[in-house]
Amino acid sequence: QSGPEAAAAPLVVAHRGASGTRPEHTFASYDHAIELGADYIEQDLQVTSDGVLVDMHDGTLNRTTRGDAANCTGAVNTKTLAQIKTCSAGSWFGAEYVNEKVPTLEELFQRYGNTVNYYIETKQPDPADHMEEKLLALLDKYNLRTASINNWQVLIQSFSADSLKTVHAMDPRLPLIFLGNPSLATIPSYADYAVGLGPSFGSSINANWVNTAHASCLDVHPYTINTVANMQAALAAGVDGMFTNFSDLLIGLLGDRKA
Ligand code: G3P
Ligand code: MG
């Protein structure tokens, strides 16, 4: 296979950027993850009321933005991008990040282009939002579709099998990751449309589970692993990478394997 599974070392996926030490899903967070040397920066997608893809985990603005209540509280999909851009996306985390804004996915592509790898999550997609179509249109606009197919420069992940199947129907060559903890018996079925699985990490994600995925040519990238002990347990199970808020911790642990 041509994907990063051929890489010498497990992949470091910067969950929401370097979100352990920076406000999640901001340029500050992504910039720092890239500086640290993460292999991928992760984006969660939400859609604004005027149809723009933005990088935000929650369906509401309440936890990670501050500003005028009319603009900066409530559901993301009830606010225009202009409203959301009035909010600080950093002050909730630290006063020094007050000028951080909620980035659009397009702004990320403009900022980093093809110099980084993206691990993009369609989050709670409502078919009426056409999130998948918008995502693929942006990949084309920034010449990332071919790089995604050939080099896995963009991985698309979702808890929603329907969302992944929607993408797969539009372009079966795109590399997709199903988020979830399927039973051993059902793991092989995900190879129909996905190249990997992103399980919540726990004791069930052991060598047997990982080997079963590998037997179906599915990579395994568990989330979200923030302690050395759990990183070591995941590596011992044979995972191909993992999501972490602390890329530096994982890169340090991988040491020479990452050099
Ligand atoms: O994609 C891995 C992880 O990001 C899934 O959980 O809720 O942090 O998006 P969440
Ligand atoms: Mg996510």
From TrEMBL:
Alphabetical keyword list: Signal
Domain GP-PDE residue range list: 10-254
GO molecular function: phosphoric diester hydrolase activity
Presence of keyword Signal: yes
Coiled coil (residue ranges): none
Domain of life: Bacteria
GO BP annotations, alphabetical order: lipid metabolic process
Name this protein carries in UniProt: Glycerophosphodiester phosphodiesterase
